[in-house]
Write a structure and sequence with these properties.
Length: 70
């Protein structure tokens, strides 16, 4: 399974509460924050909730060190 690099590009201020909650659940707090998540259906669903607030790109597994607890 691959990984996804998620970057917050727009603010959650003035957005619906569920969108702000989704950003926090993804680990994004402010514009420019970047997190790497496993490519799972749960994460894809969260990203589908806030596509206008984040930028997503695929990251090959071999470019990242093994991270436990994603």
């Amino acid at each position: 399974m691959g990984r996804l690099k998620v970057r917050q590009t727009r603010s959650g201020i003035g957005r619906k509460q569920n969108q702000r909650d989704t950003l926090r659940s993804l680990g994004l707090k402010r514009i420019g924050d970047v997190v790497v998540k496993q490519d799972r259906p749960e994460i894809r669903g969260m990203l589908a909730t806030v596509p206008h607030l984040v930028a997503v790109e695929a990251v090959p597994d071999e470019t990242l060190p093994d991270q436990k607890g994603d």
